[in-house]
Amino acid sequence: MKVCHVITRLIVGGAQENTVASCIGLRQLGHDVDLVIGPETGPEGSLYDEARAADVPVFVLKELRRTPNPLHDFGACAALRRLFAEKNYGLVHTHSGKAGFIGRLAARLAGVPIIVHTIHGPSFYEYQNPLGNCLFRWAEQLAASWTTQLVSVADAMTQQYLAAGIGTPAKYVTIHSGINVEAFLNAQPDAALRESLGIAPDDLVVGNIARLFRLKGHEFLFAAAPRITAEVPKVKFLLVGDGIYRRRFELWARKLGLEKQFIFAGLVPPTAIPRYVASMDALVHLSLREGLPRALPQALACGKPVVAFDMDGAREVCLDGVTGFLLRPGDENGLATAVIQLLQDQKLAHRMGTQGRELVREGFSEAQMVRQLDELYRCLAAETQSTKSEIRDKPV
Fold this sequence. Notes:
396 residues, six-stranded parallel β-sheet, 16% strand
């Protein structure tokens, strides 16, 4: 099938990694897949080279920008419509809020027979202003009427969108965002890496993988850090990722007198993430807005227990008391208590990590995600062809 995926930015992030992995995997299964992206990058890094290295054709659309701008948005819609019509795609698959709305509108105007959209995270959420939430809900409601199938990376996304009056239950299917499970299952602690990061052999490492940006929850880790350090003096906090808040967090660590405890690894290529996770003792994920946090299955695949706030799809991976601890969002005291318990009770940490490996091994691989997308595409194509045949054969 001739397919086009569309996403606003190809930065290093969960939605983008999902999109690139989907494009690569679907091409390997025989689909003719292109990828359209906007030109914006950032300190998070880019996945452009990874996509091109896998021979995925990537079209950079200069008008496709993240910030709303009527001139750019109209131009992006017009350009996408032309591209969809010229390439005669049988299916357009959009990702992210901005590309999701403009891409689906352009696909509808171009007469693309199948339009799919993946919900990686909610466009509307508690920490956004009411007017913005109202506009985004309306946009999603409208775009859903043009959409053949909505794909949720977590059941929580389906529940939130249905509660907001977006689409009908029949339009949703959950396909968990897959990771390269084998790379994490086989990863081993790396003594050389730990040494290069200033981590001693007997240090205990609490990791976090996220952009250094708002709503990623780093402030809660900094708030809990003094208590954790007091109880576990040999602890180190390894922050993997970069972003515009890095300088702010470095100053915060210094103000707390914990600059030696906080390690800023910076931007790490996705292929190197397993080495970092395998060198951790536990992972915390504290985002206040996330569809299905990829860092959680990544850590569990390495056999590392997790601590997460109960937001969006986190509870579908972080099973409270089984694979880690699930906390009320913003619970700094609970965060400190959970981390201290995992660091001081190695048997508990090992048991949770082992149970997490089995959970992720079964349901969170890239291969399974791609297989499910392939099955979905073929099913939608068959339904579309059947509908066309019924219309053609219907008596006048």
